[in-house]
Q: What sequence folds into this?
């Protein structure tokens, strides 16, 4: 389990993963060496999986995003999953319960680009896509509310 100090550290990292160790230590009320030790333990335990960046697809020319629900044809589950993993347009993919097996988010340059991406699945899956108009809530870290 993580304690309240770990939660404070995770919240500080969620706000700025590039914050200097000195700033993180101040935010959680520990010395830099003690903070470094906590970071190492959180990484070892798999709580922190990676320090990463958040790139805006629009800045790279991807003016369109789509949510695609994917239903593999019988016997094609592994093939569909491999094609999704190989799809450079795929930002993320969830394997889900229900009528569809996968829900993925694609970054695209145009409707034609969407057609090209979906064509790569057409022989092994049915797809249903929706164009993203806005993203009022972006992916965020799980709740880090302090207990008590």
A:
């Amino acid at each position: 389990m993580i304690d309240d100090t770990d939660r404070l550290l995770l919240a500080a990292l969620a706000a700025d993963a590039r914050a200097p160790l000195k700033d993180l230590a101040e935010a959680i009320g520990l010395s830099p060496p003690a903070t470094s030790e906590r970071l190492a333990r959180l990484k070892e335990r798999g709580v922190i999986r990676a320090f990463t960046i958040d790139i805006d697809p629009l800045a790279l020319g991807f003016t369109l995003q789509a949510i695609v629900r994917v239903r593999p044809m019988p016997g094609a589950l592994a093939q569909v999953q491999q094609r999704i993993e190989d799809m450079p347009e795929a930002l993320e993919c969830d394997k889900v319960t229900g009528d569809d097996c996968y829900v993925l988010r694609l970054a695209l340059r145009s409707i034609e680009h969407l057609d090209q991406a979906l064509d790569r699945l057409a022989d092994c899956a049915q797809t249903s896509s929706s164009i993203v108009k806005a993203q009022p809530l972006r992916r965020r870290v799980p709740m880090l509310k302090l207990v008590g």
Observations:
- Residues 62 and 109 are 4 Å apart (CA to CA).
